[in-house]
Amino acid sequence: MGFIAWIVLGLIVGILAKWLMPGPDGGGFIMTVILGIVGAMVGGFISSFFGFGTVDGFNLGSMVIAVLGAMLVLFVYRKLQR
């Protein structure tokens, strides 16, 4: 995937993760994109480590992996904020 595709995927995944885990988060739009991109990378790394697949494009499996990774990153981010 190209750089622009990662940003678009990060935006979508970040929005979905914040929608699934609502709460008082600062940072706005940029932080949503960053958390989404990092979450997609973390989700892809963890899922490929355990043999479940990778984040390799805009398909359902990649989106699920990326959203789960973004939710994990968002959880850690909130714990570090406190």
UniProtKB/TrEMBL annotation:
Name of one Pfam family that matches: Transgly_assoc
Transmembrane segments: 6-21, 28-52, 58-77
Compartments in which it is found: Cell membrane
The UniProt record lists the keyword Repeat: no
InterPro entries: Transgly_assoc (IPR007341)
Recorded superkingdom: Bacteria
One annotated Gene Ontology cellular component of this protein: plasma membrane
Keyword Protein biosynthesis: no
UniProt keywords, alphabetically: Cell membrane, Membrane, Transmembrane, Transmembrane helix
Topological relation to the membrane, as annotated: Multi-pass membrane protein
Family: Belongs to the UPF0410 family.
Protein name: GlsB/YeaQ/YmgE family stress response membrane protein
Natural source organism: Budvicia aquatica
